[in-house]
Design brief:
Elements (H helix, E strand, L loop, with lengths): L1 H15 L3 H6 L1 E4 L2 E5 L6 H20 L6 H11 L6 E2 H8 L3 H13 L3 E5 L7 E5 L1 H21 L5 H25 L1
Antiparallel strand pairs: 1-2, 3-5, 4-5
Helix pairs in contact: 3-7, 4-7, 5-6
Length: 185
């Protein structure tokens, strides 16, 4: 991983070497060969993605002894936020940004393991909702414990004030993105 970042950093540093012609034209030249325009990196998206991916990897390792995969704990986490009414499979699919068939297979496996159950919708008998079982809530308790322990480790050295500021900033970014997505509809 360091080699990738080291090479990436070296390339970024080379891109930041700006000649006089770059300042005038916006195009850098090295030994008379035209180069691409200099782009100053904005790391926000990269950092958010990388932190999320790396944290998920650590969380996967923490949940492995409990026999729960990333896809399964993702479904359980999303269901746990839905409240007592459960969720329709299509809504889980949309929320997780995966296909209906994929979610159907995941829910089949979670149901076979006893973590969720499908029940008829009270308003639409053709529809079935997915609910977490008592056994599923036991797994969620393990997920919460693993998440709390993991957060203590990964937030070591980050002051409570900076944690709050980061959470506030990310919540605002999420709201802005949600508004932009709603504007597209």
């Amino acid at each position: 991983m360091f080699l990738f970042y080291g090479k990436h950093l070296q390339n970024a540093m080379e891109c930041q070497r700006v000649t006089k012609s770059t300042k005038k034209t916006g195009v850098s030249t090295t030994s008379g060969t035209p180069q691409r325009p200099v782009v100053k990196p904005f790391r926000f998206g990269f950092l958010v993605h990388d932190v999320s991916r790396m944290r998920n990897t650590l969380f996967d390792e923490a949940m492995r002894p409990h026999g729960v995969t990333r896809s399964q704990w993702s479904v359980l986490a999303n269901l746990s936020r839905a409240g007592r009414d459960g969720m329709m499979q299509v809504d889980i699919s949309r929320l997780m940004d995966v296909g209906k068939v994929t979610i159907g297979g995941l829910i089949d496996r979670l149901e076979s393991a006893g973590y969720v159950e499908r029940r008829m919708d009270t308003e639409d008998r053709r529809a079935r909702r997915v609910f977490i079982t008592d056994k599923g809530f036991e797994v969620i308790t393990q997920m919460q414990k693993a998440g709390a322990k993991l957060n203590r480790s990964i937030l070591a050295g980050v002051s409570p004030e900076h944690q709050r500021i980061t959470e506030d900033a990310l919540a605002q970014v999420k709201a802005n993105i949600r508004n932009l997505l709603n504007d597209e509809d």
